[in-house]
Amino acid sequence: RSLATALSRARSRAASLPPSYTTCGDATQLAESELFDQWSAALRAKEGIQHLRKEPIRFTGVEIEGTRLILTARHNLGEAITGQQRMIRLDQHNAIYGEIERTDGDTVLLYCGPGQDFSAISSNGILELDVRQSQIALRRQNAALDAVRFGRNTRPDLRDILTGKKLPEVPRPPDDIVFSSLI
Question: What is the C-alpha separation between 61 and 6, in angstroms, rounded?
Answer without folding.
Answer: 50
